[in-house]
Every structure is written in structure tokens, then in C-alpha cells.
Amino acid sequence: TALELARKLQETTGLFADAYSAADLQHGPLAMAGPGVPVLAIRADGPGGVATDEAIAAVTARGSQPWVIDSGSGSGPRRLAVRQALPEALTPLLYIVPGYLLVDGVARARGVSPDLPLGLTKVTRTR
């Protein structure tokens, strides 16, 4: 989910975005977190959610104010809650929706049409 949203943010808005697992974040990328650095966390209920909570706490401690897509089970003001509990393995099917809405909103706020991203076409010719 995070990889797909990072890719969509890049191609639709022209902004740099990257995706890390909660574990990978601890091995270097955490150093980039700080005031003014946007962070979007995808937090599924289940064992992965515990690791994500730790990552959210770590970037918050460094001054980032993360947005979190979750089932609404967490707390905090910057949540994009999907009020539907699913098994962790199925959450990508549901959690991608608020992510796409976020991408759409960011593109429009930047004056970019999400349907006509600069330099891209809807059909990619492969050889």
C-alpha cells in the first residue's frame, strides 16, 4: 500500500515520495524525519500495527506530524480512518482508497490534474 501510494504521489503530483516498512525506517530513513517533513503511515490492525505504532512514535519524537491511515483504532488528530476492521492481510484493498483521495487532493492543491499528470500517459507501451 505504501509503495503504491508513494508511486502515485510521485507521478501525479511531482513530489518526491518513498515507502519504508516500519523496520526499514529504523535503518537510516528515520534520520530524515523532522519538522516540516511529511509522513504518511499505513497502520493495519494486527502484529504489523504494533511495529507501525513504534515507527509513528519515532518520527513524531523527531518533530514530524504524521498522517495515519488506519481502522480508527488509534488516536490522534491526523488520522484518515477507515471505520472497518479487516484481517491485516486484506487491509491494502481498503486502505488504498483514502490514500488515493489524499493523492488527488494534493495534486489539485498543487494545480495539477490527477487525470493528466505531467509527462505521463495513461497507456504505457512495453517492449
Structural class: mainly alpha
Ends apart, CA distance between termini? 27 Å
Question: What is the total tally of β strands?
Answer: 3
Query: Overall mean pLDDT score?
Result: 88
Level of helix content? 25-40%
Strands ordered across the widest β-sheet:
1-2-3
Order of helices and strands: HHEHEEH
What integer value in Å does the Rg equal? 15 Å
The parts where pLDDT drops under 50 for at least 5 residues are none
> Strand share of the residues?
5-15%
The helix count comes to: 4
Largest sheet: 3 strands, parallel
Global outline: globular
Task: Quickly list its features.
127 residues, 4 helices, 8% strand, mainly alpha
Give the SSE map:
Elements: H1 2-13, H2 22-25, E1 40-42, H3 47-61, E2 67-70, E3 79-81, H4 91-109
Parallel strand pairs: 1-2, 2-3
Helix pairs in contact: 1-4
Structure, described:
This protein is mainly α. Helices cover 39% and strands 8% of the residues. The chain has a three-stranded parallel sheet, with helices on one face. Strand 1, helix 3 and strand 2 form a beta-alpha-beta unit. The radius of gyration is 15 Å and the shape is globular. The two termini are 27 Å apart.
